[in-house]
Every structure is written in structure tokens, then in C-alpha cells.
Amino acid sequence: MRNMKFRRLERYRTGGSRDNMELSYPIPRSPSGKIYQYSPNNDAVPRLFLIGDAPEERKINEEDRVRIRREPGPGQTVCPYSGYIGDDDEFVHFDDVEAIKKQVEWEAAADISDYLADMAKDFNRRQPRNSFISFKMDVKPSRSLKPLVIRQDLLRDMDCNICNRSYGVYAISLFCPDCGAPNIANHFKREINLIKEQIVIADAQVNLGKTEIAYRLMGNAHEDVLTAFETSLKTVYKYLVKRNLIEQYESLCTKKAIGNAFQNIARTKEKYNQLGINPFNSITPNQLSILSLNIQKRHVIGHNLGIADEFYVELTQKEQPGETVILLGREIGEFADICGDVVAGLEKWLYSEGNLDILPIQSLVNTVSEQ
Ligand SMILES: [Zn+2]
User: Fold this and answer.
1) Helix (H, G, I), strand (E, B) or coil at 11
2) C-alpha of residue 164 to centroid of ligand 1, in Å
3) CB 283, CB 346: distance < 8 Å
4) How far is the CA of 85 from the centre of ligand 1 (A)?
5) Residue 113 exposure: Cα atoms within 13 Å on the Cβ side
6) Whole-model pTM?
7) What are the structural domain ranges in the chain?
8) For position 34, what pLDDT does the model report?
9) How far is the CA of 66 from the centre of ligand 1 (A)?
10) Per the CB 3.0–4.6 Å rule, which of 79, 163, 172, 219 could disulfide with 39?
């Protein structure tokens, strides 16, 4: 086997000797060109995310420097769900390690099989033609198929608005995996754009005379705003409790303790008050009442088939009890924008680490109760 050649393996050789090759295999990529990453942080939920390419030339705006947690580029990765920072190697996905091992095994076996087939051919060629006894060497090549690796993109495809790195996450994440800047407002902007597209589709149904379908589509778009808003408020809250009130995390963040608190303005204020934050201080009182009205509207549409109840009528002074709650695309868009402003306001608490400790909690509590 001295002059045996590993033709396939040699293609990936980056160093070492022929007896002890150093190989470098490309990591499998998803259809959009991203690679799997697995957060090494046990507390991250979920742990899988995808990381894609970034433009070669990147420049962080000076005013955004306060947001980033590391200079973007190779070396370290940030868990987008938990904010944990570690060396790039820590984030390698175990499925990729396995996939590459399988590929190396398959290629080594195929190279050996080729070598034996060549050897047999050579042996057979050397046999004397008319001798009394003849030998023939027969090598059966391995029939196993080359391992196939499939990597799928995640539904939430993102581009960091600070460092331009592309990445993919499940439902929602807080940070860019490259520069570590909070990306939740960026996430929410993406939701708003999708919701506005839904409104355009619903409006088109009205023009076709399909009013009931249009009403349902509008209802779904309206619901999606509240779902995205609730998820964002909950995700930021849980992160901040873990960061600033770790010893209370178990009691404050159980499913029971949170419930649907973030579908309700007063309860949201109460929850954030525990952290000394007023989550609504980035919007005007008028915007807060529009927000409140829409949350109420959501309950009527979701639980009462869109029929206004007495409580809702008292709040809006518009519809009569028993009438269908009016849903206008423009109003849903406004509701989404206000939610986006609240999320953008909350985002600063994710990078102003330590501020919560510096600011006297009591004065913040007073600010909250004044609103
Ligand atoms: Zn970034």
C-alpha cells in the first residue's frame, strides 16, 4: 500500500504528510448559503441558528458603536438567543462534525476501493495467457452512496442593521451573532413589513367583493401584531430578569407567573416595574391609548367573533354592542408602528448593561407610576 493514492482525500488536504494528512472540508450550507451553529449556552432556548455571509467591506457607524459587543468578523460568535459570547469553535454544530466524518470515511473507502481495483487490473494483466493454471483477481467496488447532507434555512431570515451580517433564527432572537448588537427592533420591523403585506392582500379582497375573507385576513394581521408584540416584550423581560435579577428568575419567569401578562398594558407595566423600567416611555400618551384600544379590540375579535361587547363599546364610544368591530388596514398599520416604537425603546436596555444598577430604582418606579 506504499504508493497508494487517496485521490479524493488529497483534494481537501491542507497540510501534514501523506501518512498523516491534515484535511479541511467545507461546512455544509443551507440553500441560502448559511451554516448551522449551535449555541454552547445550556440556557439558550432554542440553540440552533444559522449564520451567513457579510459584505467584505463593512463599516460600523460611529453612533452605533455603543450597541455592538464585539468588532464583527471571525474569532468569536454571539448566541443570538442568550447573548453568550464564545470562540467560533464552541458554536460548531455537532451535525456538521458528524457529516464531515461520514464524508471522510466514505471518500477514504472509495479511494481504497479504487486502489484495489487498479491493483486487481494490474495483477490480471500480468497473468501469463496460456498457462495451465491462471488466477484472476476480482474486486467488488463498494456500493454505498455518497452521504447526502441537507441543511435547511430557518424561517426568520435576518440581516443585522448594524454590521450587515446575514443570519437565520427561530421565531425571535435578541442579538446579532456577529457584532452582538441588539437586533430585536430590527426583528420587529421585519414583522411590521410582513403585516403590512398581509393588509395589502386583505384590501385586494375587498376590491374583489370578498368582504368576509377580507375581514378575516385583517383580523389575522391584527392578531399577528399583538402576538409579535407580546413575544418581544416577554423575550426582553426574561432576558433582563436573568441578567439583573438572577436570583428571582425562577419565581418571576415561570409560565404561570408570566401567563398572558404581556397582552395587557397595566400588567406589562407592573412586570417591567420590577426591573425599574417603564416600557412605554418611548411613546406619547395618545399612542398609548391607541395601543390600549387595539389590544382590547384584539380580545373582542379573538374571543367574541368580532362582535363588540359592552366593555369595548364603553372604551371606544364608536360601535354599538353587538356590532362587528371595524378593522381598517390603516389602523392596523398604526398599531404595528406603535408596537415597533415600544420595542425600539426597550432595545436600549439590552445594550446599556449596568444602567439598571446605576439608576436609582425608586426614581424609575416614580416615573412609571406618573404615566
Ligand atoms: Zn451585527
Assistant:
1) coil
2) 6
3) no
4) 13
5) 12
6) 0.80
7) 1-181, 184-370
8) 95
9) 12
10) 79
